[in-house]
Amino acid sequence: MKKLLLFIFLFSGLCSHAQFGTNVFGKDPIINMENFDKQRVHWGYYLGFNSYDFKFDYKTNPTADIVAKTVTGFNVGLVGNLRLFEFLDLRFEPGLYYTQRNLTFNDPTLIRESEYLREVKSTYIHFPLLLKFSAKRTGNIKPYLLAGVSRSWNLDSNEKVKDDNMTGQRFRMKTWTNNYELGVGIDLYFEYFKFSPSIRGVFGLDDELIRDNSAASPYTSNIDAMKTRAVFINFTFH
């Protein structure tokens, strides 16, 4: 994730440097797309990266007995922006999110890799509804904050599958989950488009785990709740 953040700043810096010759981000910049944000509604799209994780709460053992390793995933989606007031917008950003989490279970009864390791691959259709709080535009730069709620549809949840970790090596999750989201970003105005890199944290509100059929399962018996935690880095173009 540090590398991804570095990429954002480098990319923004390169874009800025490329247009310094036309005085876009200089002391007295040429104002690009001056009336763009005055539109009642405008549209865009985004590409980006994600890092999904789980937050586990345990029933008896305060020491985590499940180790989650995140794998960087990929995002793509659309943006619909509704201008409410001068510094406040309502945004709908539906998107497709591919991700994977590798879970290692440290129960001593699990010996082979096929027993203690579960690769949890997920494809989410994500529906966030966000409020965008913008600062005053300075030249061709405008920072902003994001806050809102979202609902996620996990196409690979295995919720209706009867086999579990004990019988079919199937890690099962609920199909629908609810979240709240917080983030920051910056609008950069160029001659023909607006580029907006942003980073956002996603915090699951629901217990997503489907327990194994056996109450003594070494995989799920000690889990009181399992909730999603994620970081999104999106590059939006309007």
Automatic annotation (TrEMBL):
Q: Where is the Outer membrane protein beta-barrel domain?
A: 39-208
Keyword annotations for this protein, in alphabetical order, are: Signal
Q: Where is the signal peptide?
A: 1-18
**Keyword Signal assigned:** yes
Protein's name in the database: PorT protein
